[in-house]
Amino acid sequence: MTAAEPRLEVARNARLRWDKIEARHVLLSPERGLALNETATEVVRLCDGTRTAGEIAAACVAKYGPATEGERKGIDRDVRKWLAELVFRGLVVEQRGG
Amino acid sequence: MAPRPYTLVAELTYRCPLRCAYCANPTDLEAHANELAEADWLRTLAEAEAIGVMAVNFTGGEPLLRADLEPMVVRARELGLYASLITSGVPLERERLAKLRASGLDHVQLSFQDADAACGERIAGLDAFEEKLCVAAWVKELGLALTVNVVLHADNVDRVEAIVALAERLSADRLELAHTQFLGWALANRARLMPTAAQIEASRATAKAAKARLAGRMEVLMVLPDYVAGRPRACMDGWGRRFIVVAPDGLVLPCHAAHTIPGLAFESVRARPLAELWESSGGFERFRGEAWMAEPCRSCDRRGIDFGGCRCQAFHLTGDAARTDPACELAPDHALVADAVALAESGAARPAIVLRSMRRLPLAR
What we know:
The structure holds 2 protein chains of 2 kinds.
Chain A: E1 7-10, E2 15-19, E3 24-29, E4 32-36, H1 38-46, E5 48-52, H2 53-64, H3 69-88, E6 92-94
Antiparallel strand pairs in A: 1-5, 1-6, 2-3, 3-4
Chain B: E1 7-11, H1 38-50, E2 55-59, H2 69-78, E3 82-87, H3 94-103, E4 107-111, H4 117-124, H5 129-141, E5 145-152, H6 160-169, E6 174-179, H7 185-188, H8 190-193, H9 197-214, E7 219-223, E8 243-246, E9 252-253, H10 274-280, H11 282-287, H12 303-306, H13 311-318, H14 334-345
Helix pairs in contact in B: 1-2
């Protein structure tokens, strides 16, 4: 199932930047800046064109090492939801032919 | 204390090969001919970044008329700023755009006057339609983000569907359909350019349908005219709150037209560091926050949403920048706006277009 998923990457017109005033990352795009927390930033960083949504979610699960199956599913669900939101906003794109 | 700014609007020049009758630049263009040097701009970019700015819009006039645009884009990229070029696309060649892309440009906002070349020429005094089509294609070929921007008014508002189709054909990432804000040259042309309520409503419905149909492919954004909205627009997201505008002659401003309000003290980046001007220059302090507000703004539950509307509009319509924006239907001066809308509805003969020129308008207001 995972194999059929497209790989994700940050759109060419979006750029991650450290906001030194408020000590957070911001995802910049035309006329917009989306303030990110640490976890959201981590997910955006993983969108480097080498991973699918499932692989990004798995990487987050591994990184945050949840104790229970329920927590694991929770992280997986949240990461996929966030990625879908980023794709809908055009900030992350599905790699064509990837 | 001053809030931190997010965006620098760098107005590199007021010069422009187009002469659009809806231009929001001041009507005394020749008074601002003393343009900043490249070194001033490079320093200004760094000073802006130091106080929190994360994005820069290179605009004008026509920023491409500055031969030193490239080093400015390079500096913006070195500073990690998100760089947008707000342009008419004239004059531009593919090679220069490729250089700008290589220099670090992120995004191009390209203006179209109309979906119809002849109508575009009538409002801009120049037929640049074919050139703009080429520029749009280059923007996409070079992998830059493309926003198509069209200012709407009585002469083109019935062609929004064709304009959407044009933006689709150009594979634009974003389409901004911006109803005319009646400041500068647009105010001088108001009786000609003001659409009827039915036209505005039809344009809104067309844009809404396009937005739904194109979701995920092209972002469609409509800016409605404040004259008929009932409430004022949140001009610049509030005075001296998120945007720093630097005019071609270096004046540091809270918006594109603030220097047309007499009696406000604004200074040039040549005089003092940008941080000082942003934080404490008299012009910024005058309308920052809510202390300046009179009723009905002072106790209004929307004062934190629209920030009292547009100070420049208040001045140019009433002669007093501290009045409530007449666009608000609660404003004591709302009749000034309502009368202009009624005139558009009356079917009275429309005056001829007055094209923008470097000469001061012989305005009898």
